[in-house]
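Cross-check.
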Amino acid sequence: MHYMIGDLHGCYDELRQLLEIADINLDDNQFWFTGDLIGRGNQPLETLRFIRSLGKNAQVVLGNHDLHFLAVADGVAKLKAKDKVDALLSAPDSEELIDWLWRQPLLAQLDRQTVMVHAGITPQWSLEKALACADEIHNLFVQPQLRHELLTHMYGDEPNLWDDNLEGSERYRFIINSFTRMRFCYSDLSLDFAYKEGLENAPKGLTPWYKLRNDQTTIIFGHWAALMGKVDNPQVKAMDTGCIWGNQLSMLEWETGQLYQTQCEAYRRSN
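Predicted model, tokenized:
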């Protein structure tokens, strides 16, 4: 079986509780994580160690919090108190965990028409284009000599519209933003990064990215906790149900559609 698990944000205890509720054999199943494995939660070290220990039974895509941690570890970004990754940075196996995290992709493919990403896939891209762009960035991530420069130019909201002629840092920034930060688009398909809430009070002119796609790809994603997993599109599975905000951690048994959830207390404990 394949189990799709929403954004963890370092909520290790809740992850283990969820797996116990579902009574799952870790050796005989595949666990797919929608990114943001760490960031804000109190157990980043335990979280990464556990997922890494699953070996080939774990499939991960990188989220914006994961990339921010890598930027902090590389010295590009400053550590913030709310990141809560100090234990991870000072752990004896920190370098091994960081190297493992660098080797995770931005997009994972379950079958010909089903993929998992952290935030989404811009409506401008076909599945084939998305796969190519994800590979392009991954090939940079796995080369240590190129990581620092990539991270240095990663932050920013521009460009917010794809152009095949984009080059260098602007091209890489757009690709990373699409996969890890996107929620809404404008009518011209440019990306908006300012509004982060749900659909009810969205500013006029903004449309969820998934409503603007016109292909048959099924997309599993996280990132957008305000949706609370509720999306009126059978081809889109929103898995982030706000665990770090004191809501639920969700896990979907892909083949049966069975949804497992556990209440998360991590946010309350850390504030």
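The first strand starts at residue 2 and ends at 5. The mean pLDDT is 95. Passed to J.P. for a second look.
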